[in-house]
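Most newcomers find our protein records easier to grasp once they have seen one. A record pairs a protein's sequence with a compact description of its fold. An example says more than a description, so a record of this kind follows:
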Amino acid sequence: MVKAVFVQILAILLAFVTGAIVLSLTGYSPTLAYSAMYRGAFGNMYSIGQTLAKATPITFTALAFLFAFKSGLFNIGAEGQLIIGAMASAVVGISFNGLPAPAHIALALLAGAVAGGLWGFIPAFLRAKYGAHEVITTMMLSYVAIYLTSYMVNYPLKAPGWVAQTVPIPESARLPRILSPSQLSASLYLVVLLVVLTEYVLRRTVLGFELRATGLNPDAAENAGINVNRGMILALVISGAIAGLGGSGEILGVHRRFIDGFSPGYGWDGLAVALVGGLNPVGAFFAAILFGALRSGGMVMTRVTGVPLDIVFLLQALVILFVAAPKMIRTLLKRSGLKWLGS
């Protein structure tokens, strides 16, 4: 475990070193750029709040991906599940006025989880019943969710004005903010709880054992009496529900309304973060903080130093590249004399 964590950290450091070389070759100072990025990500309480605010939805989608992955399924449709969950929460938020705040928030969160779960059920059913591969169906359903919600917010649910958005949700449905004036909301508490629950379910429960057994060897699991089709459906439904909750958190806690295109690609980032985090819920949470820091700090870096924001995306790609090549890292460790870490 210690070796694996060390290799992950070294991969991230190598990504930043490579990024520094790119910055130097393009005429920018790596020291100034990285110091500005650090200040923008962790320089004060507002910066920390913004970093965690951007890390929160990524953690939701990372958990969604790895939960399905542990069952042998590739749910790359977390983006659509997040967006459809966000729309469901927005509709509940603006439709039920007069409810007490705890009930209204709980109902809106439940709507997001149910919508995301139903969006995950469709590819799960198609896989179990007809053998349709979930990579294709989850990806295609993401586009369906994007265009469906875009139609809804541009026409029947559009608020007055030129922006494609709904009317604001009432105060009773809003998640409280943390570290104001940052956008961080109580959605952070929910995702931390889900990190713990995901780890517990996968490692400590019969359901988790059955799902992991299915992922490792579905034929052996079937022979052992595990209902593989039931497990696949359940895994994708839970995965979709987690992503849907991520969308709910963004709408109820950050934007306080549904805005067309509010997600800059949280679902796709979640897939990368799950891999960077070693397909471990706790690791994914810290990897999401790294990606959140790159996003929030990168904006400050661009504003202060003039470094293009594309450098941030380059750093993300480099992190993924180095983390996805553990054999290369271990080879470097062996050649440097640290054979026990490279083994």
Q: What stands out?
A: Residues 77 and 138 are 4 Å apart (CA to CA). Residues 58-293 form one domain.
